[in-house]
Design brief:
The protein is α/β, with parallel strands linked by helices and 262 residues long. The chain has a single domain, classed as Protein-Tyrosine Phosphatase, Chain A (Alpha-Beta Complex), CATH 3.90.190. The chain is 53% helix and 9% strand. A six-stranded mixed β-sheet has the order 1-2-3-6-4-5. Strand 4, helix 2 and strand 5 form a beta-alpha-beta unit. It is globular, with a radius of gyration of 18 Å.
Length: 262
């Protein structure tokens, strides 16, 4: 599984290094990193990232970036790739989006889960796949340091990006799903804090609200399964999505494996 890295103010940062592929190879450590946003970091966090990271890829919307801009990292290239180009409650984390989603589903857990399943299906849409295609071609660039990608919490857009590169490199689907669900462990404190805060703001101690917020703030196997189902519906297979949606040639796929596997 991916390995959590220790930072003071950077949450859910993980190194994909060490994950095993179906042919017995492993992802090289220190090259593929995923995380939450890079806003408000401690000086020690910035200095550590500057040593580790050669490129940062930000999947957030323009409004998210304006509300919480990433801290500048000296000597690090920065790419902005908006996977969703509009406010999307529950996935993008603009203040307006958060307020809408929590007001709408705070007492409707079944509807909250169904909504998130629909949002994950949207990651297989043409616009989102176009963004992930740009991400893959960033990974093909010859940087000697790590590539780090993030959204806001590092859960949804960054989680699908991790699943994509893991699939392409040959990690088993079972391990990919297990690794995706590790987000609940690594974000446990943040989820508990947000749950208390949102319930206090709403003036409720309802256990129903706890369930709804679990679906809205956490990772769920049904979500990533919905993504894979949508890929198959739109493209026929994951391999077809790689070729037609991500526009990766066999030579480029081999280049990714040569770069990131040992």
């Amino acid at each position: 599984m991916s390995k959590p890295l220790s930072f003071q103010k950077l949450h859910n940062i993980r190194d994909l290094g060490g994950m095993e592929t179906c042919d017995g190879r492993h992802i090289k450590p220190g090259l593929l990193l995923r995380s939450g946003h890079l806003s408000g970091l401690e000086r020690s966090d910035r200095e550590a990232l500057e040593k580790l990271v050669g490129m940062v890829i930000d999947f957030r919307t323009e409004k998210e970036r304006q509300e919480n801009p990433d801290d500048s990292l000296a000597g690090t290239a920065y790419q902005s790739i908006s996977i969703l180009d509009r406010l999307t409650e529950g996935i993008t984390r603009e203040e307006e989006a958060d307020q809408k989603i929590f007001a709408k589903f705070l007492t409707q857990p079944a509807q909250a889960k169904a909504y998130m399943i629909g949002m994950y299906s949207a990651f297989a849409s043409e616009n989102a796949v176009e963004g992930y295609a740009a991400f893959m071609h960033c990974l093909l660039q010859n940087t000697q340091k790590a590539v780090l990608w993030h959204c806001t919490a590092g859960k949804d857009r960054a989680g699908i990006a991790a699943a994509l590169i893991e699939e392409i490199l040959g990690v088993s689907r079972k391990d990919i799903v297990t690794d995706y669900l590790k987000t609940n462990e690594y974000l446990k404190g943040d989820i508990e804090f947000l749950t208390r805060f949102i319930k206090k703001q709403a003036g409720t101690e309802s256990s129903v609200a706890d369930e709804s917020l679990h679906f809205l703030l956490g990772a769920d196997e049904a979500y990533i399964n919905a993504y894979y189902a949508a890929v198959e519906e739109h493209y026929g297979s994951f391999d077809q999505m790689v070729r037609k949606g991500l526009r990766l040639t066999d030579e480029e796929t081999d280049a990714l494996k040569n770069r990131y596997l040992s």
